[in-house]
Amino acid sequence: MTAARVALITGGIGGIGTAICQRLAVDGYRVVANHHPSEQEAALSWKNDQAGLGFDIDTIAGDVASFEDCQRMIAEVKERHGPVAVLVNCAGITRDKTFKKMDADAWHAVIDVNLNSVFNVTRNVWEGMLEAGFGRIVNISSVNGQRGQFGQTNYSTAKAGMHGFTMALAQEGAAKGVTVNTVSPGYVETAMTLAMRDDVRDAIISGVPMRRMAKPEEIASAVAFLVADANGYVTGANLPVNGGLFMH
Ligand code: CAA
């Protein structure tokens, strides 16, 4: 029997991250969920909850905004489980503000966690994937990176940047068995959308052709498709999962 492929999910204990972890575990991957170092306790209780649901998922602390910490984290995952074959860059935050109220902290925090993180983590798994002749990278972007969103200049910038990264890196991996793709969710039932003002959220949902938010599992399903062995010819793509909110 060959060893299960190792899948690392950044932001793995969050709303979408959890669904991706569970789905990839069901699909037979050895799943490792990354969380911020400050979330040690939450991660432990998350891991226990997952075990209670029948999922054997490891957790690892790592600040995706720090290149050095990502270097350490990837080395630790390799030591525990072997090289990362599947990477899902899912860590993300919002600091929504109209641009006239946006300070430098709100700008840099979102660019660091949502976009620079993609370099920090991916750079540390890339050579291993090239050497193995196999790899799957999925960047979790957003509909708001495709169409922009009032109050999200920082977030929309970062999310649009992720897909530029996807298209460029996909070209470097294409002949080496490594695919790089983007999934662009619309509004999803998670703590992030719950934190929005009710009236703003309701107004946005009323404009979604499906008139509802996505379930996290519906995003996980798109990720599972892109990482599957059978879908190795899909690369540099942006797969929207947005209920029809933005059609491109
Ligand atoms: N287009 C044009 N004008 C708008 C607008 C829009 N979409 N939304 C609000 N305005 C106008 C308002 O009518 C108001 O005008 P007046 O000053 O003339 O009355 C003005 O802009 C200020 O609006 P707000 O009252 O909303 O301003 P605020 O400072 O209280 O709130 C905000 C700002 C917090 C950014 C709020 O606008 C907001 O929550 N926006 C939505 C952000 C959003 O969609 N976040 C998604 C989070 S989830 C996520 O990011 C996941 C994902 O990938 C989808």
Describe the secondary structure blueprint for this structure.
Elements: E1 6-9, H1 15-26, E2 30-35, H2 40-52, E3 58-61, H3 67-81, E4 84-89, H4 104-132, E5 135-140, H5 143-147, H6 153-173, E6 178-185, H7 191-194, H8 198-206, H9 216-227, E7 238-241
Parallel strand pairs: 1-2, 1-4, 2-3, 4-5, 5-6, 6-7
Helix pairs in contact: 1-9, 3-4, 4-6
Acetoacetyl-coenzyme A binds next to helix 5, helix 7 and helix 8.
The class by helix and strand makeup works out as alpha/beta
Beta-strand level of the residues, as a percent range? Answer: 15-25%
Q: At the fourth CATH level, what is the homologous superfamily?
A: NAD(P)-binding Rossmann-like Domain
Based on CA atoms alone, the radius of gyration comes out at: 17 Å
Task: Work out the number of β strands.
Answer: 7
What molecules are bound to this protein? acetoacetyl-coenzyme A
Secondary structure: helix percent: 40-55%
Principal-axes geometry comes out as: globular
Q: Which CATH class is shown? A: Alpha Beta
List segments where confidence is low: pLDDT < 50 over at least 5 consecutive residues: none
What is the N-to-C succession of helices and strands? EHEHEHEHEHHEHHHE
Number of domains: 1
Oligomer: single chain
Mean pLDDT: 98
**CATH hierarchy: architecture:** 3-Layer(aba) Sandwich
* CATH structural fold name: Rossmann fold
- Tell me the strand order in the biggest sheet: 3-2-1-4-5-6-7
Q: Please report the distance between the alpha carbons of the first and last residues.
A: 43 Å
Major sheet summary line: 7 strands, parallel
Number of helices: 9
